[in-house]
Write a structure and sequence with these properties.
heterodimer, A: 174 residues, two-stranded parallel ribbon, 9% helix, B: mainly beta, Protocatechuate 3,4-Dioxygenase, subunit A, four-stranded antiparallel sheet, 4 helices, binds fe (ii) ion, Protocatechuate 3,4-dioxygenase, beta subunit (chain B), protocatechuate 3,4-dioxygenase activity (chain B), Intradiol_dOase_core (chain B)
């Protein structure tokens, strides 16, 4: 059967997909915070912004986060329209390495101006050894690998997404 | 790593990322080649929301946000079946919808279209497919609304849909249109879909689901990417 075609999420998704975050009176399907407390697991924060082809911050995107290492999984969602500087943020745990590969987290990016969502993933700057031998990371041209490594800064990891330009983030065909 | 023979995105029906008719794509669509990913467990699975409790009126947008009366507009029932690419129904999967009210106005604070809000209509809902992959919403037929893409641009009547399926590759966000809408041929978002795929986005009037003296029925069947009808077992 033919796949139903994708259409843009548009600019007005907030009250439907992220209602609580934007102050609408409708229950959220999920949030940006992994709510279950996991014994002995350190909670980490991922923070970033999304930039368009003119390097302007995008204030009406929606990011979904998915991670599953076979032991724990988490699906989160956050729109970039509720914070004054249009950042997104998630609180989660760092996934385990699976099959000797570097830990990573998948992000799905939706926005007005995207007819179809984009998949990316980020790795962790403090996993140097595992990153070096990771098969997916190594399938990315060397000069673009940095675009998908979240940088550890103080108490959080920073991961900015560039839709276009010199530092365009690597997007994947999954 | 798990090798996959799952389908890729069908470029014969899906829109291109860049479509100059839809001007916002120009600065927001990726330009560099996608990297083909070897699938790992994270791509073979996805959120299932089996523990999520739906409210009893979540699927009925005509009732889920009333304050002092009923929402204004033409009451409709929208139903359909969610399947994978080999035609198997996908049971127990979440659908989310959102839309403008009958006057073509969204509740979203950024929507400044000069049309009235409806105090009894929020315009969002969700439901789960049953064991046969069927879903059903009650709502109000959304109005057309203007937008800034080009001079005198109007969006055809549409309902936004969000679906998950069982893997993150089956994630779909789309829009359902109505049969016979004269605005379709002028709409760059609808027309960004390749000709072969366009009619898949248009619901069909359905007299069998139409409820006498209550609501007109429309059928909108959905096919998600992939061939996995049930969740992948982790271990
Ligand atoms: Fe819309």
């Amino acid at each position: 059967m033919l796949q139903t075609p994708s259409q843009t999420v548009g600019p007005y998704f907030a009250y439907g997909l992220t209602p609580k975050q934007y102050g609408y009176d409708f229950k959220n399907l999920t949030t940006n915070i992994l709510e279950s407390v996991l014994e002995g697991k350190e909670i980490i924060t991922i923070k970033g912004k999304i930039f368009d082809g003119e390097n302007k911050v995008i204030p009406d995107a929606m990011i979904e986060l998915w991670q599953n290492d076979g032991e724990h999984n988490f699906f989160g969602r956050f729109g970039t329209g509720s914070e004054s500087d249009s950042h997104f943020a998630f609180q989660t745990i760092k996934p385990n390495s699976v099959d000797g590969q570097a830990p990573f987290v998948t992000l799905i990016v939706f926005m007005r101006g995207q007819l179809i969502h984009s998949y990316t993933r980020f790795y962790f700057s403090d996993e140097t050894e595992l990153n070096k031998q990771d098969l997916v990371l190594n399938s990315v041209p060397a000069e673009r690998q940095n675009t998908i490594i979240a940088q550890k800064k103080d108490s959080c990891y920073e991961f900015n997404i560039y839709m276009q330009g010199e530092n365009e983030t690597v997007f994947f065909e999954v | 790593m798990i090798e996959s023979n799952d389908s890729l995105l069908d470029i014969e029906v899906q829109p291109s990322k860049l479509d100059i008719g839809y001007t916002s794509t120009i600065l927001r669509s990726p330009t560099k080649p996608m990297i083909l990913l070897k699938k790992s467990i994270a791509e073979r699975t996805g959120p299932l929301f089996h523990d999520f409790n739906l409210g009893i009126l979540d699927h009925d947008l005509t009732k889920n946000s009333v304050r002092n009366g009923e929402p204004i507009g033409e009451r409709i029932v929208v139903h359909g079946t969610v399947r994978n690419e080999i035609g198997e129904p996908i049971p127990n999967t979440i659908l989310e919808i959102w839309q403008a009210n009958a006057a073509g106005r969204y509740v979203h604070k950024v929507d400044q279209h000069n049309a009235p809000l409806d105090p009894n209509f929020l315009g969002t809902g969700r439901c789960r497919t049953d064991e046969h992959g069927n879903y059903k919403f009650y709502t109000i037929k959304p109005g057309a609304y203007p937008w800034g893409n080009h001079h005198n641009a109007w969006r055809p009547n549409h309902i936004h849909f969000s679906l998950f399926g069982n893997q993150i590759i089956s994630r779909l966000v789309t829009q359902m249109y109505f049969p016979g809408d004269p605005l379709l041929e002028y709409d760059p978002i609808y027309k960004a879909v390749k000709a072969k795929g366009r009619e898949l986005l248009i619901s069909k009037f359905d007299l069998d689901i139409t409820e006498p003296n209550y609501a007109l029925g429309y059928r909108f069947d959905i096919v998600l990417r992939g061939s996995q009808a049930t969740p992948f077992e982790n271990r």
